[in-house]
Fold:
Amino acid sequence: MLQLNLWGRSPPYAARSATFQHSIGQLKPDLITLQEVEGRDSTDNQAVELLEPLGYEVRFDPRPGRKDFEWGMAIAARHPIGDLEFTDLGHGGVAIAARVRLGVDELRVCSACPLGWWPTQEAQREDECVKLDGWLTALSHNDKVPPVIGGDFDATPDAASIRFLSGYQSLHGGSTHWIDAFASAGDGSGGYTWSADNPFMAPKATATFAEPGHRRRIDYVFVGSPFKWPPRAIVRSASVVLAGDGGLPPSDHFGVMADIEIVPE
Structure:
């Protein structure tokens, strides 16, 4: 499974889109969750444009995650996908979910983008992560395979919102547990997906954060807890991808790739 904030059609889009398609052709993820996807409807959108030629089914919701950007959300798979379900997380955040058929099994996949993105807005992200957990847990409570979430959370692993999802602290009088794929089976790196090492992000590191060396892990793949669902989804590995490999990355974010094994019943 691949998670990426696609950064819309920000320039230089022709070069970025070519890099993205080439990288997807090499990585061959079965599932992809995307945020900041430009488009008008289910057929006229950036995810369809980029991924259908590579053999993916795409589900897209055009509702913007932020009022100042007309960017939507997408889920893509190399397997049949059901209809989308949607929730407003509050404070501008959005989550979508759809069932993906994997042989005899069905896996519910969620693309999420809690906002706002400023470091001063953690209280808003906490509200949104509590709502995301409650919504997706209720939606998936009878599922035989744990749901998975890919998202741009704009929060580092030590933030209360991520600690809540990971089961390390309570929020709003409640607690939960999701497996952070990178924390569980990461590649040994810092996992930074929002980094001054990215030439598209580097100017923002100083202009916005006053940190020329700004680096954070803010993009995640989460797998539903074996204490809530049958322990049938095992994270085998996770790594940072789409980092350019010395060339041009396809977005101002790097991606997260997780190898998730679905164990037969």
